[in-house]
User: Fold this.
Amino acid sequence: MSLIIKGFMELGLGAEIIYSFVIIVSSLMIYFGTREIYELSSYKGIKYFRRAFLFFAIAYFFRSFIKFILLGFDSWEIYSVIPGRIFGAIAIFIFLYFSSMAIFYLLYGAMWRKWKGDKVKLVILNFLAIFIALASVLFVNRVVHLAINILLLLFVISIVYIAHKTKQDNSRHNNFYIIYLLLLIFCIFNVLDILIPRFFQGLQLFGYLVSSGIFLIILYRVIKKSGR
Amino acid sequence: MGKRGRLEIIRDILAIIRDNRLIKLTPLLRKANLSSRRFKEYFGEILAKRFIIETIDGKNEKFVSLTEKGSNFLEQYRAIISFIDEFEL
Assistant:
């Protein structure tokens, strides 16, 4: 049995490396590729958009770190890895904090005009990200993890819906909100994949392919639009 | 015509300076079609970002002209707006 698990994880190592590489490199290319248009325009929406992808890169770096700890200790769950427990907890905290911040910054980037650049909301979202990361580390319970992520998903869907409706009213919209929604949903998929490792068993490869596809579509559109 | 956005106003001011090569502040304010308070605000911003440069001639008169960075902004303006629209920012 342990051989089967080992075989599966070894098979997954290549996929994990490629997946992490695609996401981290795409996110960093989006971040650095938009530097010039941000420096020229100082436009706040672009600032939050860029930061979201910087946070995605950091979050996925720590996600890979967690996956490699699991692989190193031949385990499914970070908390069952006794020697890696403290590193695992720190990595999970950082991963969840930056994943949540990436989601919130992407939402804030789409909503900042409606929210009139209200910095208080950004501080609240920052505290919410810290709360999500802390709660996930302190309560090692699948129900708690699932509940937090379902609430996060509902929050994301409602904000994307409001953002889309607002843009529709202003007749200044395209269908990019679908890409945003998918990106945010798959970001939550990645969080659950770490917190509840066998939750998406069998769907993991599909999830990786779709997530990579979404990041590559965004990267393509960024390169096309920014001319970088 | 709707209210101009921040980037559009900056583009308009820079385009006036580019078209005139060297321009004094008073005609620039008039052509920019802004209140003096708002003009001061935008002028301060584009000066701080080094989109323009101030020069003083022999008669002690102040002129402004476009820098390379300012020309770059004008070249990239469409791309910036298109980017903002594309990503619904």
Summary: Chain B touches chain A through 16 residues (CB under 8 Å). The mean pLDDT of chain B is 89. The two ends of chain B are 22 Å apart (CA to CA).
